[in-house]
Amino acid sequence: MAVTLRRLYGVSRLVLTNTQPWLHTRRVPPAASMVRPYTSGKDSSQPPPDPPMDRMDIVMSMEPAIPIYAPKQNEPFETRRARLLYQSRKRGMLENGLLFSTFADRYLNKLDEQQLKLYDRLINEPSNDWEIYYWVTGAKPTPEEYNNEVMDMLKQHAQNKNMEQRFRQPDLTEQ
């Protein structure tokens, strides 16, 4: 009966609380010996030791590292502007997509080379888009390395003093 329940419910261990197991069963988390850390395919004769279950830092360290952003060298001005327009629209989270796409629509053509480099660095270096969102909206203080004239422009844009409706990204136009 327990084998059937394992197949039906995907339960690795069942605790029977009565003589009728199909009526009174509850799921139990797998034993610590059943949980193995991610291995990179190395062939070893002994399995790796179990991580302590109260150490979340071990589990989190198994995630792949985010690559460090390397700015594009010798990129033509118009190519950089087109790339930043695309990256402003495709942020991965709606809030930043709306903020950055409307900002790019209004200001990207007016930014000079140095301001474009600052904007490029701002939207590509930080690995967490929520952090950028909190800096722009003023929920968290902006780190010194990103506190510049472009960030000030973004903060002003995010305040939306004209009460514009920004519920969709602006249409792309040929220029």
From TrEMBL:
HAMAP family: SDHAF2. Coiled coil: none annotated. This is Succinate dehydrogenase assembly factor 2, mitochondrial. It is found in: Mitochondrion matrix. GO terms for cellular component: mitochondrial matrix. Residues 33-54 are annotated as: Disordered. Keywords: Chaperone, Mitochondrion. Interacts with the flavoprotein subunit within the SDH catalytic dimer. InterPro entries: SDH, SDH_sf, SDHAF2.
